[in-house]
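Contributing new records

If you add data, match the layout below exactly. Sequence lines come first and carry their own label; structure lines follow with theirs. Keep one chain per record. Anything else will be rejected by the validation script.
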Amino acid sequence: MTAEAVSTAVVPSRDAWRSLLWFAPLVALWTLLIYRWPLIPASGFPTTVHQLAAHGFIALGLWLGLEHTSMAQGQRRVTWLAAMIPYTLWFAVAWSAAINGVFHPSATPLPMLPMAIFLPVIIGAPLLLFSKRIGQVLDAMPASWLVALQLYRVFGSWALAAWLHDALPGVFAVPAGIGDVLTGLFALPTAIALATGAAGSRRAATFWNILGLADFAVAVTMGVITSPGPWQLIVLHVQSIGAGDYPGVLTPGFVVPSSILLHVLSLRQLGRRNRMELARR
């Protein structure tokens, strides 16, 4: 490989890492802001804003991806509506349930919060993994989109701020908050590397997806064993996120399963790209 080729492969990666020089201070500033004024996250405003923004980007990304497929206009419209209508209804139901206290353990004998986390993944993951139309969209859509979309994970720093205010137990908030912030921070350089075609960018994106899923595995496990309910193993003097209070409960009730499904889509897309590249060799 020539020096010029090496430079072409390495420079985009360096540019990607440089993005952290301005993004990381912004995340630190946001964390300091919500620590200094806890009424900001308590109002539910940041949760609402970043979920509506994510919803909008998903809707736009799906439409743009469909426009690059070979589907007829009618098929594109039907596919878009078939994805966005249930997703929007799911968001509305989760939001309404959180505001009305449905996720409180005392509200119903059913394990509503675990159901809100796992049912969408159990139902949605097979559809996203095996749908031919979704596969066509993923082939037409830049791989960087599904990674960059999860920049919102940096808002998970609210858990760290809540822990510092003794509003969440550290055994849950510290690993969950740090995992979310790292996933959100690394989403930016990973997306830039994918967009610029940097060497090893798909492998880096795969590791990034694994990091994001591992973060949820730890957070959900710690949330379950520290929250009131039949699976509580650690009883603390501070209520955990499973107490069902709005707006914090929207994180496990909607953000977590949504993000897991985005990771599933990203991994499928990366796998399809790798297989197509191997087939061309």
